[in-house]
Amino acid sequence: GDPDVSLAPSLPLQEDFVYHWKAITHYYIETSDDKAPVTDTNIPSHLEQMLDILTQEEGERDSGETGPCMEYLLHHKILETLYTLGKADCPPGMKQQVLTFYTKLLAHIRQPLLPHINVHRPVQKLVRLCGDVLAAPTENEEIQFLCIVCAKLKQDPYLVNFFLENKSKRPETKSPERTERVKAPDTGQSPAEEQAGCPKEPQATAAASTSSPTSNNNNSNNYNLVTSLPQPHKEIVVKACEGLMLLVSLPEPSAAKCLTENTELCELLTDRLVSFYKALPQSMDPLDIETVESVNWGLDVYNLKEDAAIFTGKRPLISFLSWLDYCDQLIKEAHKSAATVMAKAVRERFFVSVMEPQLMQTSEVGILTSTALLNRIIRQVTSEALMQEMVYFLLGEEREPETPATVAQNPLRHRLIEHCDHLSDEISIMTLRLFEQLIQKPNQHILHSLVLRSLEERNYLENKPQEEREPLENGQPHDAVDLEEDPLFVDDLSPDSRLSGSDWLGSSPRQSPDHTKSDGKTEVHKIVNSFLCLVPDEAKSSYQVEGTGYDTYLRDAHRQFRDFCGVCQRWDWRGHPKPFEKCNLDAPFFEGHFLKVLFDRMGRILDQPYDVNLQVTAVLSKLCLLPHPHLHEYQLDPYISLAPGCRSLFSVIVRVVGDLMLRIHHIPDFTPKLLLVRKRLLGLEPEGITIDHMTLLEGVIVLEEFCKELAAIAFVKYHAAAASSSP
């Protein structure tokens, strides 16, 4: 074929390209009115055409080959000129156009552009221009531009050296022309080498500024992507820049070291978190805090429609949560050393300095708002390093068992646990929810601090040889349920859906002497029925209402237990209880502050509001689900002999039931009233006349349901243990 054919189409492309660029430069020569917005001119369409031509040109050529249009763009320093026009924002809106042009150019052109001096030098200047004005109209474009720059750096980590600069050589004052004035010294290297300059010779980097005596000090490398502005404008380029995320995970060792040691990254992240937090209203509805849509830091956060502000503080709340999510993701992606440094900074500069005084205050409105925010924060944090620091902040780092004398050694932990039993029901409920959230996080120290360290020595047990337990009186009580026959369970816990890591319960439940069945069925039935029979018949109402049986509890217990096993299997929890001979049974038993408050509240179930009761039992049932042998024995084994003066969940419920029996006889028509209250709670009866003893009646209903839930949990756990121990 004719060798010229392949060139022919390029010439008109180049002519077109030059035509569009000349049209833009002519506008500046000829126009006198520079107040008209850029959108009233043809500039945006000329820029768009230029991008289309460059993309088309690259598509028609072999990869890596630079076409005449791209050559023209590089040779005539078009990006430099555009940078100058964007910086001047002339005509108004030009900065936005320039940012978009750079972003699309870097995004759409496949060949590497950043190594070219006439690309990375203007790109670097534009990076510095970003974040200059907070909440600028160009914020979105700035974020997208920074993200694409960083994505390119991620593809070629060595390019990061173009963006490392020597902090000690930055001019102290902001001189408007400084970036244009400063030229990198001519080192005789090729432009790309000259610019890369490697951190060993920072004076050769693009950002090298003046010939200060510290030119050769390479310990103060800094990312101008991070602190892209001199002091007065340190508010920050990292608007929500993915870029930083990519940077912190860069494999370049110089980058990881540089980020943790030398940049103001930690301060920038935490200062911003603090300022977002401080912008929140002093008082907010906890429900709003809890239900505001799940926030991922990202571009959509920044162009929320005005009308989305449904409640006061919604927008600042979304800004705060999305920045928190950003910090969390950043720490998750970061090099391990960088992650630890950043997480510790968040603990010190945000949790300790800002949140702690909020949580320790005495104003109830303030406590409620800050606890709801903390709950939301706990729910949202997923990075291991940040979670660890947050947990140490909340609960302290102590490992040894608590004693009544040491409960207050960590003031914040003490105060939060006390808030579970606050005069304000709202504060109690919110704090209980916070702990319910906390004990489900995949962090071993949480459970150790709150519960397990008190149970390590099993000194809740009576210190005498364990007599075998007595079998139940004459077989089974009349309302015993044969769970083994429940079709749901026969299918649902088939051998192939066995729970991994469930040998924690011992090889099979202990048998009583006259029941030597090897599968522990009798044992399970005895335990399940101990819980089911706790509430006396005249105080039961669920059997008279459709759909309030067991199946739901069994299903939930099975699912939640499986989830907990998944979380806990990485931890060094023993498979079996610590052997008696190794336990210090003489040490005085203290259940620990957290269980003490939960048991105290559980003991008042007949005298406190329904919503409080629901939350107390929710936290206790979560603890019962944990696959730890001591916790299981202490919470779910009704047959253990407790040491004198000790209480367990079962003994607390037994006392409540004793109290209930005395009170039932003083209330006429107790059972019909109970049934009516249950139907109202289920929405089966309209709210009608007020019923006296309402709190007590609602308490009895929660008690009955809670005992069914505990029975289901015990069944699921024993079943899982038997399944995992059978050959």
From TrEMBL:
Biased composition regions of type Low complexity, renumbered to the chain:
204-226
Residue span, FHF complex subunit HOOK-interacting protein C-terminal domain: 591-683
**Coiled-coil features, chain-numbered ranges:** none
- Point to the regions of Basic and acidic residues compositional bias: 169-184, 512-522
Please list where the region (Disordered) is annotated: 169-226, 500-522
What family does this chain come from, according to its entry? Belongs to the FHIP family.
Any idea what this protein is called? FHF complex subunit HOOK-interacting protein C-terminal domain-containing protein
Lineage of source species: Eukaryota, Metazoa, Chordata, Craniata, Vertebrata
